[in-house]
Design a protein that fits this description.
CATH topology of the largest domain in chain B: Rossmann fold
Oligomer: heterodimer
Structural class of chain B: alpha/beta
CATH topology of chain A: Alpha-Beta Plaits
Largest interface: A-B, 29 and 48 residues
CATH class of chain A: Alpha Beta
Distance between the termini of chain A: 26 Å
Radius of gyration of chain A: 15 Å
Helix content of chain A: 10-25%
Strand order of the largest sheet of chain B: 7-8-6-10-11-12-13
Largest sheet of chain B: 7 strands, parallel
Number of strands of chain A: 5
Number of domains of chain A: 1
Strand order of the largest sheet of chain A: 2-3-1-4
CATH class of the largest domain in chain B: Alpha Beta
Strand content of chain A: 35-45%
Number of helices of chain B: 10
């Protein structure tokens, strides 16, 4: 979970030709806090500063870097997604 | 109107509409064994107009002749039916028992269903299971792992006693126990029991190993990160089917597609709800994420007449399932209820996918998706609305 005002939860999709270890090393260097490596789907969840986003997206070990966003369902009784 | 003259079909339809199954809305009063007829009459007379079986002498009670009675006494068995109109406003059953010494108990009346012989079994199930041919399938989901990523599950639900369930929560600070209801309802459709005690059959893969992943909070809110963690968990545990009745109004996302491709490579198929943002026929909203990812099976919702549900999103759709007035399990004490949505269509497809996966070990990942579409019943609607058609059991 974010701790500083600028912190956001991020989703790191690792490039196909990069390893989990390489991706974690890159995040450590960028001082991104790793919250959960997802080895089966080749991704990492972490927390970093929003101002870092563009620079993180330029790292070749990542296919994509996205800010996490909420998913919500409607209450029972209404059509539910 | 729930009166003594209301027929059982009307009562059942009303109970389905109100989500109150298996209860009729009436109460059954049981009198103490030593209660005299006079005691019973005295206890009931305060509640309003009363009829008694003895009014018909030795003949059967003619319900068309009970008039405006709100209670019907059966003296021989020491019981009575109490309609809602006879229940004092704001009074609890326990209060009535305490006030009338002749009364032993007051309990909600349950619907009675025929035993499941070959003739009546077809009618003793939800419309969705009948429409998808589940009752005719010899498969049960045995040996198949089905992950339902949702609001969790009522792990104490009586219909799931003895079932193989692996729970895990990806919502910080919350246990898997479902305090919302959505997850328990979806799991009920995909993996509910073959012969629940009090209600029609509503579950499909009744022998499948259930993986109840809580990725949405008890308020029905989650994050993409939690959903991805749930997918990762399901794949790591070898789930052949991953059902996700969730989504958001977003275009295709790289991370969802990457996760879905990894799942397929591992022999797991992700099945997701298309979303409920349409208002047909005037407005059709595009399929949401993650269902709009190419490697995810997107599910649309149909009504009992096999028409597209007014709320069902369209565009990228692979298949359709029953999604209007779907009866299934809910956390206790509600126990059962009826919901509508592509959320309800999705576990129909997931449960049937488990049956197909059981039928042939070759049906995994993309091959399972292809088999789902091959078996589907074609419908006279655009592919962008229903895909290959109505999902069908093997």
């Amino acid at each position: 979970m974010p701790h500083k005002p600028d912190d956001v939860d991020m989703i790191f999709s690792i490039a196909a030709d990069a390893s989990m270890e390489q991706a974690m090393q890159a995040l450590n260097l960028a001082k991104v806090k790793i919250s959960r490596p997802l080895g089966e789907i080749h991704m990492i969840l972490g927390t970093g500063q929003l101002s870092q986003l563009d620079n993180l997206r330029k790292l070749p070990v990542f296919q994509s870097v996205d800010v996490d966003f909420p998913v919500q369902i409607a209450p029972p009784g209404d059509p539910i997604q | 109107m729930n009166t003594l003259t209301t027929g059982p079909d009307e009562l059942f339809a009303a109970a389905v509409a109100d989500g109150q199954l298996p209860y009729t809305g009436r109460q059954i009063i049981t009198f103490n064994g030593d209660a005299k007829t006079g005691d019973m009459v005295a206890a009931l007379s305060d509640l309003g107009p009363m009829a008694a079986a003895s009014d018909w002498g030795g003949s059967d009670v003619d319900m068309d002749q009970v008039g405006d009675a709100v209670t019907l006494l059966f003296e021989e068995t020491g019981t009575a039916i109490l309609t809602p109109a006879g229940m004092p406003v704001g009074t609890l059953s326990s209060d009535m028992v305490e006030a009338a010494p002749a009364i032993l108990s007051i309990e909600p009346e349950l619907f009675a269903f025929p035993s499941a012989d070959p003739v009546t079994a077809a009618a003793n199930a939800t419309w969705g299971l009948i429409a998808t041919g589940v009752l005719n399938s010899k498969y049960t989901g045995q040996g198949i792992k089905v992950a339902v990523l949702d609001t969790g599950m009522d792990l104490q639900h009586p219909d799931f006693v003895g079932r193989l369930i692996t729970p895990s929560s990806f919502v910080p600070g919350q246990q898997v126990q479902d305090l919302h209801g959505h997850g328990t309802h979806c799991i009920g459709t995909a993996c509910g029991p073959r012969a629940p005690a009090k209600v029609p059959r509503y579950g499909i893969a009744h022998n499948a190993h259930i993986f109840a992943g809580k990725v949405l909070s008890n308020s029905g809110i989650g994050s993409v990160g939690g959903i991805l963690a749930g997918i990762n968990w399901a794949i790591a545990n070898g789930c052949q089917v991953i059902s996700m009745s969730l989504g958001s109004k977003a275009g295709p996302q790289v991370f969802y597609e990457q996760a879905a491709q990894r799942a397929l490579a591992a022999g797991s198929l992700i099945i997701a709800a298309a979303g409920n943002d349409s208002n047909r026929p005037s407005y059709i909203y595009p399929t949401g994420a993650p269902a709009n990812s190419p490697s995810v099976v997107a599910v649309a919702a149909l009504d009992v007449n096999h028409n597209v549900a007014t709320f069902s999103n369209g565009g990228k759709i692979e298949i359709a399932g029953p999604g209007v007035d779907v009866f299934s399990s809910l956390p206790m004490p509600r126990q059962y209820g009826t919901f509508s949505g592509t959320s309800m269509a999705t576990p129909h497809v997931a449960g049937i996918a488990a049956l197909i996966a059981e039928s042939n070990a070759g049906y995994r990942g993309a091959a399972l998706a292809a088999r789902l579409k091959t078996l589907a019943q074609a419908l006279p609607h655009p592919v962008s609305d229903v895909g290959a058609g109505l999902v069908q059991a093997p």
